[in-house]
Structures are given as structure tokens and as C-alpha cells.
Amino acid sequence: MSKGDALRPITLTAMEQELIAQEADQVISETLAVNELYVACGRQLPKSDWRHLKTKENFQVYRTRKERRARPQQQRTDHGNYTPNNTFARDPTSASYSGSLMSSRQFSYTSSNSSSSPNNLSPHSQQSVIAKMKPQNIPLVVATGVISGTVEDAAFGALAHTETLWRSRDAHLKDEYAAIKILAVIREPTAQDPFRSLVLKWSTKRIGSLARMRDCVFIEANGIAFDSKGVPFAYNLVHSIDNIARIPGLKHLDVVRVNISTCYISRRYNQSSIEVFCRGFVDPGVSFTEIVSNTVYPNMVLTFIDVVDCALMKKLVWLMHKKRNHSGSSHTLKSSSSRPANCTICSTKSSGICNLVRSWVPCQACQTVVCQKCTVVKKLQVEVSRSEMKEKAMTFCLHCMVEAKEASTRQVASESVNIA
User: Fold this and answer.
1) Domain range annotation of the chain
2) CATH architecture assigned to 313-415
3) Does domain 3-307 have CATH number 3.30.530.20?
4) Quick one: pLDDT at residue 77?
5) What's the CA gap between 264 and 161, in Å, rounded?
6) CB atoms < 10 A from the CB of 251, how many?
7) What is the pTM of this model?
8) More confident residue, 386 or 120
9) Measuring CA to CA, which residue among 75, 234, 64, 74 is closest to residue 157?
10) CB 299: neighbour CB atoms within 10 A?
């Protein structure tokens, strides 16, 4: 039996689905509380407790330092507030939520951590999911930065509730796995709620040429919710689940099971940008702990930088479907040889000396043949088999690129529910 066939889809009981949804809700709530505290403390992490690992574009990645000696949990300043110390390394328990991933309505997460005082966050509470599952020798990782796009772009780009969307997204983010499988779909997007999903997944990944294959059983939760002030935010959670006995380990195939928890919170930063906050950890099982924590995992976290571009790729796929269906199923792409007398965008004559040697190609969406200057080439993921995606360069005219970018992300997501 191959590793890819080792696990099969399962049917979860109603109780299992409810417990999974509750755990996802709790981790999102914990991360939201830490994010709010991070903002309240001036978006600063104490250098004495956090070590900078990597910077990519506007994204910074940090990890907790190894504890060298015990230190007071809090220190008062002259103004009566608390200094951060390693507050963000702790696991918040003051966060609570109303609603659930199992609910059919839009829900909100609220945090009782209303002040910027770090003593509201307890590191040892039994309610904290992260505190219960993370080994003490494994560091927490925090990443934060600002990227162009909207909250809905982040939610749409991260959405991967089918194996096709999963492969396409991860191939675009350059975060591919050796094998993947969806074990159970607890909640999938609808036309009315197109960003929300909760899926039980399994994947394998090799972290190095000398390392044994790793596998992971996890839930992925995605959607848009509201914080305690009623402000929308996007969340994406990847979180290991190990309490379902029907999902066996693969030690007999020399596969090491990994535990991971990574939660992204994306909020509006300004009119054209969002601020992303991520907190998580990965336990690679045996050995390679430092390599994974310092290099492999931060690189995985940083792939989220391109999540908005994933949303644009999905918009282009939607636009191709829309325009081709509108043109009729019998309509075929125009060949580059049937170039018009003038470019329909810039009116450049096709008979010009320069244009005689340049290829004029049809737009993959509207199928209009335009000059090379009025085209944009985008690399989209195309499914070539049930288990393989192939990157294909596709040409779009400037009009269609603008139309895709400016299209309502919610409308596109709603109309794309049945595409994949």
C-alpha cells in the first residue's frame, strides 16, 4: 500500500463534528485575543523574549527564545500598566466566542481582554488549546505584516475545501505536499456564505532529503467573522487533530506524524491593505526540531504573503468560465493568425513593422486578439490529473485583468461555489 492510499475518507459523527468545530473556534478566539493585545501594546515584541527569524517583503517572523531563567510574569511601570515581557508567548484564555463554525449564520468572536494589560492572559489555564498541545521544548512562532488586498481577498485566496482547490492554492503558494487527502467535509461554502469552510485533511511532506516522511491529520477552518467591536476579519486555521481513533498512524510505513497549529488573522489596515497576524507552532515528531522551527516552518508561514494573489487567480478562472459560457459552448478561441487591423485596446495597427514580428494572442477570458503591449501573462494552476497540477502561462487582455481585479470578491466567491 502506498502512503497516498494509507488513509481513506471517514464519516464523522455529529458529536465529533461538534467537538472539532468547538476546538477550531477556541483556537481562533485565542489567536484573536493575542492579536488584539499585540496591537494594544504598540505592535512590539520584547527582544528579550522573541528572536527575529526572517523578513520577506513587509512580513516579519519571530520565535520565542529559549528560557534561561525564571522571571516575573509581569512588571509594573510607573504609570500602572504592565510591560509585555513574554506575554505573546502565553496562551490566552480570556477570549470567548459567540456562534460556531457549525452554525449556519455569520458569527462573531469576542474577547474579554478589553484592556492592554497582559495579565489578562494566563499561560497555564486548562482552557487553552495551544497550552495543552504544544510541548515545552517547541517554540511559538509569530508572523505579522501588511499586504495589499482586502479581508475578503484573504478569505477567498485561502479557501481550499476541495482537493483541486487545495492543490491549486498550495502550488501557487509554493507550499506543496507529497500527498494530500480530504478525510471529511464538516462545512463547505455556500452561495450565501462563500468563504466559510471546515474540513478534516491529511497530508504528507518531506522536510529534508535525509529526513523521514512526515504526515499530519488536521482541520482547516476558513472564513470571515467579527471581533468584539463588530469589525470583520478573515481567519485561516490549520490545526492538528489526534482524538479520532479511526485515523491510524503510519509508523509501519516509516512515516512520522507531525503536530501543527497555525492561525492567521487578517484585518483591514487601510483602504487598499490588510494587516496579517499569525501565531502557531509545529512539532516535527522526532529530531530536526531546531531546523523545522527556525527554517522550514517560518518559510511555510511566509507563503501566506501571496494569498491575495491566489484570490486574483480564482477571479481569473471565474472570469474565463463566465465569458466562455456567455459566448456559447461552441465558441472557440481565435487563433493568433486572425489578428484584427487594429488593437481593440490601444488602436495600434497590426501592420506596423514591429507588430509584424510580434505575436498577437487571444485573451483567455474574452478571446479578443490584442497586441502584446496590451496583455498580461499570468501563471495559473491547471489540473492535469486527479493528483497533479501543472502551471500554465495564460494571456489576458488589460480590460479583463482590470475587470477581474475590480470584481466583487464576495460575488465571485459566491458564483464560484460550484466551479471547483
Assistant:
1) 3-307, 313-415
2) 2-Layer Sandwich (3.30)
3) yes
4) 37
5) 17
6) 9
7) 0.85
8) 386
9) 234
10) 15
